[in-house]
Here is the input.
Amino acid sequence: MAITGGYINVNGIKTYYETNNGPKNPKGTIVCLHTAGRECRQYHGIMEIFADKYEVVAFDMPAHGKSWPLPGNVGISDYKEYGKFVWDFTQAMKITDPVVIGCSVGGNMVYYIAETYPVKAMVSMQGSAYIKAMGTAYGTTVNLLDNPYVSCQHSHWDFSESLCGSKCSKEAHDFIMWGVCQECGRAKQSDLSIYNNYDVREDLKKITCPCLLIRGEDDWNVPEHYYQTAIEGLTNAERVAFEKVPGYGHFIIVEAPEIVCSLIDKFLNI
Amino acid sequence: MTDKERLEKFKKLQEMINGPEAEEFKNYWDGRFFTGDMTFIFDNTPYNMHFYQGKMIDVFMGKPSNGYNVGIKGTSEQWEDFFKHRNFQLATSIKHNPLYFENLGSALANRQNNSVIAQVMRLAARAICD
Here is the structure.
């Protein structure tokens, strides 16, 4: 296995990253954003498949996985700060040609990042440029993730289970659910706070890079209309592709890395 | 379906949860930790299930004497919709579903672990529909 890990200091935060040590490719260096509450191991499949073709770098956001939290033992709960941290990570890593790909909250964040920073291309999976306001009931749910009576892991068991696609293998499913077991309430809370207050539709027209949108169609949580809204807003993108993948769900990067890699490779080589 | 006919379906559900579904319910969906009342309301009719460590001890029509502990309240239309997709998260999502169910009891009553309720709802769908 070609994957190796390491630490780099990003704005004073010891940040854990992994790379497949793949070859430099003129199409860009792939930088991966994990889903809410999880960490960069979600991209092992993609890193392995691309080992001979692209350099792929995945990292744990602050308070996730092996990365240190922010002062006060919390994660980033503002999407602009989140985007800035991602960009600062690429700069610290001296990545000059980032193709930023993300899934779930990471799939949301790539829109803001592509609006704000000069990325080479973006790939949004199970993501959206906005999230419909979920009201106080959802806010209470998020707040309770740090309540001493609530187990973050157990409170998300059925939710994560419901997000897996019908074709998800047992191996992928087990890793997804292991991800639930390892979640930290405060980290999850930070990500879901971003998720609950996200709307970057107004600036979609600022995106000029190529944009690939991938949807695992079994994901009930991110319906297709979110993608259509983004596509309508991407009026100045160099090109936009929308790929639907039947049978797979919200964790498509874990569920179907072969398909995701095939779509990304095709997209980058048009 | 009359209220009493539905009660018979809940008794079938009791047999499922205490029999062939017991292992998965208790060990995968955390049922073994659940002791207390769980109530499903169809329109205005409550069906109350009393559990002891994941075993359904009793089921009856009516409100539990100590008030609602945990459960779900919905109209017949909401339940019919749930029976089609059988996705608890979708059925209770304010974000996705204009006909989302009302949760009974406080979020802390089951420490925000809805896995148990979700699985009982899925099994209830099987008992009532299949």
In short: Chain A has one domain: 4-268. The longest strand of chain A covers residues 4-10.
